[in-house]
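Researcher: Structure prediction, please.
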Amino acid sequence: MSQALVLQTAIWQEQPEVDNPFATKHALCHGYDVYGDILTKASYSEYLYLLFKGERPNPHQALLLDKLAIVVANAGPRDHSIRAAMNGGVGGSTAAGCLMAALAVGAGQYGGAHEVFHAVNIWQFANQDIDRCQQAMTQLLANKDVDIWPPMEHVAGFDPHGVTCATIIQQSLSYLASLMPNGHLAWLLTNRMALEQMAKGTLAMTGVFAAACVDLALSAEQSEMLFLQLRLSGAAVHALEQQQLGWKKFPYVSQLIDLQQDAPQFAMPNIDEFGL
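Model: Predicted structure follows.
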């Protein structure tokens, strides 16, 4: 007899109801009763950390994750992934379509989630050492292997076109670093200008996010996923807003459409040309 297929997961355990095997009676996340204990005793950021790490965060980690979520919740219409969601909303796409557009555009290596992946690797390798950071940056740009992703064209975590570090990035870094005085965020705050010179660009939000993830003991893969997840709220609300405003108030579309003009006239083909 063939063995029954068993789904392998250390994250989640369920106990079914006695009278219905398809309904859940108890749900455990890494051993913690989600609806019996976590629901009444934990915050969302504490639960989110438990999901990713399999353990409870300490108070400093929980607060850092909570504030980090605020920092990246809405990148604003200047961000390409937000505009992708706005395009979906004004164009009548479904809710899922708008969010998938934001995920697709926001997944890349310029201001996107995969840039966070590379930035985490830089900070982890550097381990708060300037010389090792320079080595990691050089190795990243020297790697020309092409797999799913093309080679990086700039140092991850920095904006190669930046003039000065944006005010909101400095504000975010300063506050987040105060929550982890001995962590990578604090080291980044102290050495920001020197690192910007090495990277030939200004610090980007992806670099701040990556340093926070290192302080949270997240891997590069976990950080990439978290970045995608936390930014969806901004994409959602901007898509909904543009959906309500309509295309006439959407500058990228309305100025290109003039309903007063006559429809273009197309000549009918000669059917003899097709042998009919």
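Model: The radius of gyration is 24 Å.
Researcher: Thanks, that helps.
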